[in-house]
């Protein structure tokens, strides 16, 4: 369908950007963590900025990882009830569950944006010259992207499709 | 009244299949709202993920585990252990147990062990003459064996959650690793004894004797991977290196060996492996983040204290409490995965258990040991479904196959629960 092509392109480039960011962040974390050990053992003391940078990277990696996990709906959920239900019922419940998730993500995104603005005004630094608001930005960004995915899932379930797939049957 | 209505709605959302991070996040948002606190508090709590140095170990160990899982290392691990132990009665079964325990300690009990190792071990066990049912049962129940050994993620996560609670007793993650050692060995020993007993009656058609040449070749084949568990486990248990340092070393080592030296993983495949590993990390850290917020509200509302007072009015001694705890955790383990259970239940349970004089280290080991068998407790243990899918067997077959293993490990869990010294002797608590 011609109308879906730009959307599909957008989805794909979003997908690639998320993966790219995540891969860069993970490799940076591995290298920095190794560098820290080398410095500590050779020079007797590591660089002070590496430790807080690593901790911030964990936050970014965790949230970017959570975004990629939401792409195929592989977040941890209780499925003993839904697994046993007939497809029709299951889809109905999933519409409700996904909409609920969208609401929660929207609320956290909103509070996140407010908090980023507050930190921006406050102009504190997280480490070295990196301002706190820049580190915190990942929070509304990630919850916004996760919420977006669950909104798409809700629509898909509503249309009678199953975006998660069922491996068993 | 409001609290009750909200709780029911959240419970329904969870049962309808809403992701748990959303359910916990909602409880935090509503809790802060009802307490008259600005919702930005939720953000501040999640941001605390960036203030815990120990958490660096989680993505690093997971990365190392996923790289090893995607490489040919599982095959080499099976070959090696088989060459060394395969010739003894019940040897191959013990091989399977040891290999699974080691692999699970590194990858966390997320079903990877069954998918990556079980697929190799199941046919090998059958070729060696073990019955279909025994082999299936062993491979499935071993999928969660090893979570009591360093550097397992559930152990680290328990330590992280417990450290948030301002306990009167100090405990380090290293103490936890030491506490898990003997209980984990007990489980291994019990299952090994059963395997030897089972293998004794078995007339193996072509059980090979000990082959020195094959043993040497297998050692050489696994030569690059062998040092990894040695320096990680040795370093941690020996107290030589910090956990986050061990994690960094493991990640770098696994990357260099499997991508650069052995080239089991092509560098072009690497991004996919990284992203896959971080999906699990993301799922765990996300529920940890939102639960930091909900835990805070719960403690402010004195939920654990009130729960303790209520339980104490019904259960007056520690032993009864422990029995009830075992039953509760067994049911919990069937319904919730280990990571969610840790971040949701431990903050409530730990203060209550402390009230009964149970050491936090001991509680951690009881908790994880119980959750471990919850993975394959019928009817809804997660690993039963993973194994059913992986080996193409009906779930009913797996219920029957895992039953003897279930009762043996249940016995181990009871021993672990009622003999605290098993957990507390090594860390010296």
Notes on the structure:
The complex is a heterodimer of chains A (169) and B (429). With 169 residues, chain A is mainly α. Helices cover 76% and strands 3% of the residues of chain A. Chain A is built from 6 helices and 2 strands; from the N terminus they run ααααββαα. In chain A, helix 1 (4-42) runs antiparallel to helix 2 (50-71), helix 2 (50-71) runs parallel beside helix 6 and helix 4 (87-122) runs antiparallel to helix 6 (138-158). The model of chain A has no long low-confidence stretch (mean pLDDT 88). The model of chain B has no long low-confidence stretch (mean pLDDT 88). At the A-B interface, helix 1, helix 2, helix 3 and helix 4 of A face helix 1, helix 2, helix 3, helix 4 and helix 13 of B.
Major sheet details of chain A: 2 strands, antiparallel
SSE pattern of chain B, N- to C-terminal: HHHHHHHHHHHHHHHHHHHHH
Range of strand content of chain B = under 5%
> How would you sum up the major sheet of chain B?
none
- Strand residue content of chain A: under 5%
**Shape of chain A from CA axes?**
elongated
Could you say which overall geometry of chain B the principal axes of the C-alpha atoms support? globular
DSSP helix count of chain B?
21
Q: Write down the overall mean pLDDT of chain A.
A: 88
| Rg for CA atoms of chain A | 20 Å
Considering residues with a beta carbon less than 8 A from a beta carbon on another chain, report the largest interface and each chain's count.
A-B, 59 and 65 residues
Terminal-residue CA separation of chain B? 43 Å
């Amino acid at each position: 369908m011609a109308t879906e092509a730009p959307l599909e392109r957008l989805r794909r480039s979003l997908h690639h950007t998320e993966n790219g960011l995540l891969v860069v962040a993970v490799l940076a974390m591995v290298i920095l963590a190794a560098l820290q050990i080398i410095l500590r053992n050779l020079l007797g003391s590591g660089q002070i900025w590496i430790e807080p940078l690593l901790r911030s990277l964990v936050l970014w990696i965790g949230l970017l990882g959570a975004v990629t996990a939401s792409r195929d709906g592989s977040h941890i959920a209780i499925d003993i009830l839904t697994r046993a239900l007939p497809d029709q019922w299951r889809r109905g419940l999933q519409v409700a569950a996904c909409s609920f998730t969208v609401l929660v993500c929207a609320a956290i995104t909103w509070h996140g944006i407010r908090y980023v603005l507050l930190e921006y005004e406050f102009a504190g630094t997280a480490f070295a010259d990196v301002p706190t608001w820049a580190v915190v930005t990942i929070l509304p960004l990630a919850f916004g992207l996760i919420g977006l995915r669950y909104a798409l899932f809700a629509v898909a379930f509503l249309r009678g499709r199953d975006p998660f797939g069922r491996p068993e049957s | 009244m409001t609290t009750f209505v909200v709780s029911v709605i959240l419970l329904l959302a969870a049962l309808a299949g809403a992701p748990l991070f959303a359910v916990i996040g909602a409880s935090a948002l509503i809790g802060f709202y009802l307490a008259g606190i600005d919702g930005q508090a939720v953000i501040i709590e999640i941001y605390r993920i960036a203030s815990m140095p120990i958490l660096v170990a989680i993505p690093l160990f997971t990365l190392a585990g996923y790289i090893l899982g995607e490489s040919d290392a599982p095959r080499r691990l099976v070959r090696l252990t088989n060459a060394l132990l395969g010739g003894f009665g019940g040897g191959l079964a013990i091989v399977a147990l040891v290999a699974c325990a080691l692999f699970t300690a590194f990858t966390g009990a997320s079903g990877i062990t069954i998918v990556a190792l079980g697929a190799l071990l199941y046919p090998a066990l059958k070729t060696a003459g073990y019955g279909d049912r025994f082999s299936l049962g062993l491979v499935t129940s071993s999928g969660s064996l090893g979570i009591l050994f360093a550097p397992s993620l559930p152990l680290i996560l328990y330590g992280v959650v417990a450290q948030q609670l301002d306990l009167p007793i100090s405990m380090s993650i290293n103490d936890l690793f030491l506490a898990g050692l003997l209980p984990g060995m007990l489980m291994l020993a019990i299952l090994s004894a059963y395997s030897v007993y089972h293998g004794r009656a078995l007339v193996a058609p072509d059980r090979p004797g000990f082959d020195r040449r094959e043993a040497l070749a297998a050692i050489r084949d696994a030569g690059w991977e062998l040092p990894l568990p040695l320096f990680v486990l040795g370093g941690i248990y020996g107290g030589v290196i910090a956990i986050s340092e061990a994690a960094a070393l493991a990640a770098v080592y696994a990357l260099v060996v499997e991508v650069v030296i052995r080239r089991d993983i092509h560098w072009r495949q690497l991004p996919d492996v990284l992203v896959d590993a971080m999906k699990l990390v993301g799922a765990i850290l996300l529920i940890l983040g939102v639960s930091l917020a909900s835990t805070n509200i719960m403690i402010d509302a004195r939920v654990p204290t009130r729960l303790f007072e209520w339980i104490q009015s019904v259960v007056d001694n520690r032993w009864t409490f422990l029995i009830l705890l075992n039953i509760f955790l067994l049911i919990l383990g069937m319904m919730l995965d280990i990571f969610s259970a840790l971040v949701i239940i431990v903050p409530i349970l730990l203060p209550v258990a402390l009230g009964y004089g149970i050491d936090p280290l001991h509680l951690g080991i009881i908790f994880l040991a119980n959750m471990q068998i919850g993975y394959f407790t019928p009817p809804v243990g997660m690993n039963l479904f993973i194994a059913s899918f992986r080996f193409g067997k009906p779930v009913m077959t797996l219920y029957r196959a895992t039953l003897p293993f279930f009762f043996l490990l249940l016995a181990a869990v009871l021993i672990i629960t009622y003999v605290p010294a098993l957990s507390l002797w090594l860390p010296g608590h």
